Task: structure prediction
Amino acid sequence: MTTEQRTTEQRVAALFVRSDSIYKALPGVDAWDAERDARKWLGGYPCVCHPPCRGWGRMRQWSHAVEAERELAPLAVSLVWGHSGVVEHPAESSLWAALGLPRPGQAPRNQGYTIEVDQWRWGHRAEKRTWLYIVGCHPDDLPPIPEREGKPTHCIRPTKAYPRLPSVTKPEREKTPLAFAQWLVEVARRAA
Result:
């Protein structure tokens, strides 16, 4: 099946997305934001899951995530186990340890494997290391990860590595670059 055929034939769900998500503009993508409530998605086709990360990330001890919000991330993993696709979360998310998911470079477990990518390669202004838990798409079948010249012009938060770069805004930290969303949708289509 060609990429064009997959685009027109294979529907993909984008779950737990922002209300202003770029996924809503992508052809063949059924986007579920908080209003639609992804917990009501019935499945039947592969998914790209962006569950809230603030309760699982490195700064989780300062988050105000309630338990109902934290429960969405394990639900996202169970959805890719049942329907194939990909779960996206920040690098070093504690979700991996909590569910026994393989870290990047470890052998596949629980039906899937994990890779680490940097969203900067897809157009984000900051280095944004991200873990992707993938079920149903063999590593050799992943779309190519783009190359990009230069360096990030911004950072997520100032650190020792980026002490002088300006920080991106909170909405920009949460948004998925268009090219990355398209790549994730293609991963899910290949997982079908």
